[in-house]
Every structure is written in C-alpha cells, then in structure tokens.
Amino acid sequence: MNVVEQITHLLTYPYVLERYNNDTLNIIGWYYIIETGEIYNYDVEKGYFELING
User: Fold this and answer.
1) Which range marks the domain in which residue 31 is found?
2) What is the pLDDT of residue 4?
C-alpha cells in the first residue's frame, strides 16, 4: 500500500497534478516479488495492481 500512498502524495503537488492531468507526466508505481520475479504495476484508473511480466 506504500506505492499507492506515494502516488497519492505526489498528486498533491499542483505542478505534478497539472502535468499528470495534461498527459505530460506519467506516474508509475511498481512492486515486485523477488522469489518469483513477478512485477506488478499500479493502475491509477482501475485502482489496483496488475501483473505486467506474466
């Protein structure tokens, strides 16, 4: 949940939010599981993590 919290925090900065809303800035939140090598990306629009290297 730390990844989601940090994305939310970044969007509290007006200049970050403006660029994010204008599609001139992407914010990517990943977490990975070392044992399996799985990488998950947080999709802000959908509100959940998706496996991206499956």
Assistant:
1) 2-51
2) 94
